Amino acid sequence: MTNFPTNKPHISYSEVRTWKECSWRHKLQQIDKIDTFEVSPFLDYGTIVHEACEHFLKTRELDLEKMAASIRQAWEKRGYDSDEYINKQKLIAEAKGNKPWPHNYVDSWVEWATNAISDLPAFMDKAFPGWEYVAAEQELYEAIPNDDLKFKGFIDGIIKTPTPRGGWRGWIIDWKTAPKWGWHANKKRDVLVTSQLALYKNYWVRKYNVNPKDIHCGFVLLKRDAPPGQTCELVKVSVGPKAAAKADKLVANMISSVRRGLFFKNRDSCKYCEFLDTKHCP
After folding, report:
1. What is the CATH number of domain 10-269?
2. How far apart are the two ends of the chain, measured CA to CA in Å?
3. Tens-place pLDDT, residues 6-29
4. Are 180 and 224 a contacting pair, CB within 8 Å?
5. 69-72 — which CB contacts under 8 Å span 24+ positions?
6. Contact 48, 74 (CB under 8 A)
7. What interhelical angle do 106-127 and 41-59 show, nearest 10?
8. What is the DSSP string of 95-119?
9. What gap in Å lies between CA 173 and CA 155, rounded to an integer?
10. Using 50, 70 and 90 to split pLDDT, how confident is the model at 282?
11. pLDDT at residue 196 is higher than 60
12. How far apart are CA 254 and CA 17, in angstroms?
C-alpha cells in the first residue's frame, strides 16, 4: 500500500483537476475526507444520458423509453420538482451571492435527453464515417511513470474509423452534457479540460502499445434545450507530444505537491465551491 497522503493507491483525472483548481479544496476532500456531496439533477441527468450513449455505442440501438423512465424515476426519488428542493436551491444560490437558476421540470429534461440521443446516430455517422465499436467504459488502472501510484479512469468510448489508405484510426471520446450553446471557445482551449483526454490517451496507448499518432481524441457534447438536429457537437482535442508531456507533468506536479504537504487556497476558485464560507474555509 502506498503512503500517499490520501491513503489511496491511485489518483484520477478528477482528483488532479480539483488539485489544480484549488489544492486546499483537494486537501479537504481527499485527505481530510470531508464529504459534501449532494445529489443534483445535472448529475443524475448526465449519468442517465451517458448510459444511453454507452448502450447506443455497443448496440447501435436507441432505448428512449428506458432513458425517459430512468429520468422520471430519479426525479421522483430525489424530489427535484418539489417545492422544498426548489426553494432550497434558491436559498443556497442567494447565500453565495449568485442568481438562482430558473427551475426546469422533469418533462423538460426528458425532452432534452430524447432530442440528444435521437440525434446521436446521424451525428456519429457524420462525424466518424464508417465508425466501428471498440470499447465503452473501458477501465484504466495503470502505473504512473516513476511512481508507485496508479492512474485510475474510465474511457467513455473507443471507436475506430477507416482511413483513405485502408488502415484504421482510433478515437477516444468522452460524452459531456452541456448547455444549449455548448462550450465557449475558452473552455474548448482550456488545458485543464483537455488534459482529461490527453491523460486517457497517454495511458491507453501505453497499455496497448499503440502508436499515439493513430489515436485521435474528442469530446462529444450533448446539449440540453438545443433544437432537434443541433444537439450534438464534436470538440476535437489535439494530443501531440507536447500536450501529452504536459499532461504527464501535471500529474507528476500534483503528486509531488501533495506529498510535500503544499496546500494553498485559490481565491479565484471560490464562487461555486462547496466549502465557501464554511468552517473549513472561512
Report:
1. 3.90.320.10
2. 34
3. 999 999 999 999 999 999 899 999
4. yes
5. 71/44, 71/45, 71/106, 71/109, 71/110, 71/113, 72/106, 72/110
6. yes
7. 40
8. HTT-PPPPP--HHHHHHHHHHHHHH
9. 7
10. low
11. yes
12. 9
Cα–Cα distances in angstroms (integers) from residue 244 to residues 5, 7, 35, 262, in the given order: 26, 27, 32, 25
Strands 132-143 and 150-162: antiparallel
With contact defined as beta carbons under 8 Å apart, do 152 and 140 qualify?
A: yes
pTM assigned to the model: 0.94
Q: Which residue has the cell 462550450?
A: 183
Backbone angles phi, psi at 72, to 5 degrees: -65, -40
Helix (H, G, I), strand (E, B) or coil at 141: strand
C-alpha angle 204-60-47 in degrees, rounded to nearest 5: 65
Q: How far apart are CA 214 and CA 211, in angstroms?
A: 6
- The ranges assigned to domains in the chain are 10-269
Q: Does the pLDDT at position 96 exceed 80? A: no
The strand pair at 150-162 and 10-12 is best described as parallel
Q: Which cell goes with 157?
A: 468510448
- The DSSP output letter for 128 is S
Closest CA to 157 of 252, 72, 60: 60
- Give the cell for residue 172: 477516444
Take residue 231 and report the three cell numbers written for it.
444537439
Contact between 108 and 68 under an 8 Å Cβ cutoff? The reply is no
Calculate mean pLDDT across residues 161-174.
Answer: 96
CB 26 within 8 A of CB 263: yes
The DSSP 8-state label assigned to residue 81 in this structure reads T
Place of cell 473549513: 280
Q: What is the mean pLDDT of the chain?
A: 95
